[in-house]
UniProtKB/TrEMBL annotation:
Residues 34-499 form the Aldehyde dehydrogenase domain. Belongs to the aldehyde dehydrogenase family. It catalyses: succinate semialdehyde + NAD(+) + H2O = succinate + NADH + 2 H(+); succinate semialdehyde + NADP(+) + H2O = succinate + NADPH + 2 H(+). This is Succinate-semialdehyde dehydrogenase. The lineage of its organism: Eukaryota, Fungi, Fungi incertae sedis, Zoopagomycota, Kickxellomycotina. It holds the Pfam family Aldedh. InterPro entries: Ald_DH/histidinol_DH, Ald_DH_C, Ald_DH_CS_CYS, Ald_DH_CS_GLU, Ald_DH_N, Aldehyde_DH_dom, Aldehyde_DH_Superfamily, Succ_semiAld_DH. The active site is at E273. Pathway: Amino-acid degradation; 4-aminobutanoate degradation. CDD domains: ALDH_F5_SSADH_GabD. One of its GO terms (molecular function) is succinate-semialdehyde dehydrogenase (NAD+) activity. One of its GO terms (biological process) is gamma-aminobutyric acid catabolic process. Its EC number is 1.2.1.16.
Amino acid sequence: MSLAKNNKIVSTDELSKLKDKSLFCSKAFVNGKWVDAASGKTFKVSDPATLEDFGSVADMDASDTRKAIDAACKAFQTWKDTITKERAQVLRKWYNLIIDNKDDLARILTLEGGKAYAEAVAEIEYGASFIEWFAEEAKRTYGDFVPSPIKNSRFIVWKQPIGVAGIVTPYNFPNAMITRKVGAALAAGCTVVVRPAHETPYSALALCELAQRAGIPPGVINVVSCSSEHTSEVGGELTQNPTIRKVSFTGSTSVGKMLMEQASSTMKKVSFELGGNAPFIVFDDADLQTAAEQLIECKFRHSGQTCVCANRVYVHETVYDEFVDKFVPLVKQKLHIGHGLDEGTTFGPIITERGLEKLEDHLKRSKEAGAKVIFGGKRPSLKVTGQFFEPTVLVDVSYDIPMSCEETFSPLCPIYKFSDTQEMLKKANDVTVGLAGYFFSRDIGRIFQVAEALEVGLVGINTGDIDSEIIPFGGVKESGVGREGSRYGIDEYLNLKTVKIDF
């Protein structure tokens, strides 16, 4: 680990480097127009790497949200009847515009989310892939002609758009979580009202500007930005307003449970991608160099702030020391702390203060339980005042620590030692969530056995990278319901209607 080149402070002058400054939008987007909150209120957005405010955004409330819902409802009447080929064409234009403007979108994302610039570009490309994918899937929402058991009857199953969807997205992937949801909704014929995280509203608003240029009609996409003060009431409007027929949320399990309870008041369809606590298992026959390299990517991407990050690393006792000896030098070599727009940065700040506080609490309690920090373990000495924390590796880890059962969402990497596979798998599964899991082995029998045994929705075998628009993304247990991406993702925004015809 090292400091990025020059360890300089990157100021908000970086906004002047945008090629297209009209992508930096500070108003909400409702019915195809840029609007202020009815109250006239705004809220500030800060750079987590410097804690410097660099913009203010319209602070919408429940009444503003109702206007957006009404606009989406009106637009739905036309959009649902737009032929699928036309929906596909406009989505494809949106995709092309996102790719054409990916550098500016990545710069905006880095400023508000702290992500290293190269990683931000990767998110923009990843996010755009969902728009491209669902542009193609829009034309493939096939129904069924069911063979009839009755001589003079025929049965047809249609797929129809569910209606207006409320979309609530997190701060860690402010571009991709919107495109993954909105791409599927629009392809299905739904309209949307999006509430982005208050930490990262600018990425959502920039997408609206490009959607408008692509020719997506007014009211089809609406974004209601809001501060933490209004987050609860805006979310409540999206979950309880009867005009909203579907809610999609990515975030913590605790908030997901609250939103699901609210949505039940009108029996809305829901798809929730919630918390994770991913095990990362290294067996004695694994390629240790590959496993160590993949753990760097899997654990420390976005400074550990992803729901599919490795949270608990289990290494077989016979290769434990060798694996640690390979892993720690890679941490030193590949992770360079700094502002995301500084040359050479690969490791940015913790986005929120509460996230940093949770990190430090988890570390303190782990050390009290006997864990040893062999790398990192503190806030680095930087010429900035941002929310940075070193990538941290812990060994001799007890199972009696918070990270054994709680998602840490930070760059803390606890490495557990195991000897018995069945006992280890029991511990790996002994959590309330089940989003992702990873393991490394070259034994084909073990590969199938462990893949089947892990109680998760996504399994990576000999890889720490499972993200793709072509696969269904989602978890089991308290990691949520429904799937996003892939050919299954569009079904979350469609209703099945059965038609019987007698003659």
